[in-house]
Amino acid sequence: MNEHIQEKLAVLPMQPGCYLMKDRHGTVIYVGKSKKLRNRVRSYFIGANDQKTQRLVREIRDFEYIVTSSEIEALILEMNLIKKYDPKYNVLLKDDKSYPFLKITNERHPRLLITRKVKKDKGKYFGPYPNVIAARETKKLLDRLYPLRKCNNPKGRHCLFREPAIKRRI
User: Fold this and answer.
1) CB of 101 closer than 8 Å to CB of 135
2) Is pLDDT above 60 for 162?
């Protein structure tokens, strides 16, 4: 590990944020996020790592970090930085997918949907969720608590939704 990296590791904050690892050409090769930047970035250079991480560490010549106010902000920033730099060591989000959100539509009879695109359509968006399974589980719970419209019929077609009867033990 070179002296330049050691000096930067010494001043890392204990706050949430994102870090960008760079190679000898200054190209971003990895983007990550952490709730405590100091602990996470240091872990690359100290201790045992798997083979993929060892290859990454051998290529790192510099790094930058961006402090955020929360883990959620770091998650969103990480997603955007990965899309911007397309680092070779990031596998997640390289398929052009983004994190899922729950959306309550802005319709006379609103629906609850899972979407990966946040649009300016006056709908209410909640998220991002770390993965689609977490979003689906949350949606399933909300569907039971708040039975909103489930269908998307063309105008003029009726949409009936009946909640199944709840079985009670006596």
Assistant:
1) yes
2) no
Mean model confidence pLDDT for the chain? 86
- Can you tell me the mean pLDDT for 155-170? 57
Indicate if the alpha-carbon torsion angle 127, 133, 139, 145 is positive or negative. negative
Q: Which single residue is written with the structure tokens 């930085």?
A: 81
In the structure, what pLDDT confidence band is assigned to residue 6 with cuts at 50, 70 and 90? very high
As a whole number of angstroms, the distance between CA 31 and CA 60 comes to: 12
